[in-house]
């Protein structure tokens, strides 16, 4: 209820993270969202309990609150610790990453009819963190695909399609070459598809999928795929509608955890310059509100964001405008 604030975890993250997290805080204030943020920062030292710069307390905060919003986290390379994002995904068992992507009214790109959702397996595949040197000059990386994780993400994709009135699920793969790994992934998708006769199921090889997405993205509805493919395809999809400044996502974890985040990274090239487009993180925060069933607030905020972009007076540089992050944010708040 309105009188009891809901506690949610906030990781402002690195690079442009704190700037766009500030936008979310301002917009939530303007819309009177009954959320109290529990802010956690990336630590300065490795926490032995997480083997990364993420503190145990910050993980506990998400486990306790079950909802949160995270900014991008850059990982310093080659220091003998786990990636922050991998740590979060593994420790919190964030098994599916849902990435909706739709043409924004009033913002013209080559297409005006993109409306698809990428569902990315989020815990294994090439991102299992199992890489080592075999001998000098030869390195090895293990791609792990399990029946359990594949069934779980496929189940989520079909469940999502049903719940959101979607008609088709496409499993994206390279099983012609990766016969064992992607073969198992497909087998699991097929098994789940049988339980959902209302949903059309198809299998598309990833290279062909890229070509079709660029040529006619309206062919796709819900796409489900292993980790690495999901990472790549979702940036491609962002490009179809205007770029990474626009596309949100939500990580779904076991036990009802939802940790929303933008698809993009910390954008070091524009960090600290008040230039970042906060739309991706704002729309991510909207998915968090929907998870909390705060649909009125979610609708109002989403409408204010989309209207501001459609009107075109205030747009950030990535969309061809001249507004700063703060000016764009203020324009949204004024609508609220
Ligand atoms: P990136 O997504 O940070 O940036 C790619 C390009 O898109 C850059 O030109 C950037 O300026 C632009 N861009 C991204 N977000 C934008 C926004 N909101 N508004 C306007 N322009 C935006 O990818 P990059 O440069 O490859 O990665 C930078 C760092 O972020 C790396 O350390 C990477 O590991 C990390 N990363 C973290 C992610 C996460 O926390 N989930 C996801 C992707 C990358
Ligand atoms: Mg990515």
Automatic annotation (TrEMBL):
Domain Isopropylmalate dehydrogenase-like: residue ranges: 7-332
Cofactors demanded by this protein: Mg(2+); Mn(2+)
Gene Ontology molecular function: isocitrate dehydrogenase (NAD+) activity; magnesium ion binding; NAD binding
GO annotation (BP), single: tricarboxylic acid cycle
Any one annotated GO CC term: mitochondrion
Keyword Calcium included in the entry's annotation: no
InterPro entries reported for this sequence: IsoCit/isopropylmalate_DH_CS, Isocitrate_DH_NAD, IsoPropMal-DH-like_dom
Protein name: Isopropylmalate dehydrogenase-like domain-containing protein
Organism the protein comes from: Escallonia herrerae
């Amino acid at each position: 209820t309105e009188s009891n604030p809901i506690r949610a975890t906030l990781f402002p993250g690195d690079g442009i993270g704190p700037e766009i997290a500030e936008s979310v805080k301002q917009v939530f204030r303007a819309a009177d969202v009954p959320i109290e943020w529990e802010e956690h920062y990336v630590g300065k030292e490795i926490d032995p309990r997480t083997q990364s710069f993420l503190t145990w307390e910050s993980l506990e905060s998400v486990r306790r609150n079950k909802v949160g919003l995270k900014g991008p986290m850059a990982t310093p390379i080659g220091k003998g610790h786990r990636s922050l994002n991998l740590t979060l995904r593994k420790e919190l068992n964030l098994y599916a990453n849902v990435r909706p992507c739709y043409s924004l009214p009033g913002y013209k790109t080559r297409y005006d009819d993109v409306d698809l959702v990428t569902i990315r397996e989020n815990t294994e595949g090439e991102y299992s963190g199992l890489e080592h040197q075999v001998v000098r000059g030869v390195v090895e990386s293990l791609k792990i695909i399990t029946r359990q994780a594949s069934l779980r993400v496929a189940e989520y994709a079909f469940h999502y399609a049903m719940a959101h009135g979607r008609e088709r699920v496409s499993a994206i793969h390279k099983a012609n070459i990766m016969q064992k790994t992607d073969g198992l992934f497909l087998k699991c998708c097929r098994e789940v598809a049988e339980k959902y006769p209302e949903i059309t199921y198809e299998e598309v090889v990833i290279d062909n999928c890229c070509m079709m997405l660029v040529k006619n993205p309206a062919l796709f509805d819900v796409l489900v795929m292993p980790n690495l493919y999901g990472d790549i395809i979702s940036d491609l999809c962002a490009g179809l509608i205007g770029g990474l400044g626009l596309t949100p996502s939500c990580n779904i974890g076991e036990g009802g955890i939802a940790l929303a985040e933008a698809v993009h990274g910390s954008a070091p090239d524009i960090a600290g310059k008040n230039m970042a487009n906060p739309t991706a993180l704002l729309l991510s925060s909207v998915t968090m509100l929907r998870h909390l069933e705060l649909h009125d607030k979610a609708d109002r905020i989403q409408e204010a964001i989309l209207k501001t972009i459609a009107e075109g007076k205030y747009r950030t540089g990535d969309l061809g405008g001249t507004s700063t992050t703060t000016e764009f944010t203020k324009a949204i708040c004024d609508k609220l």
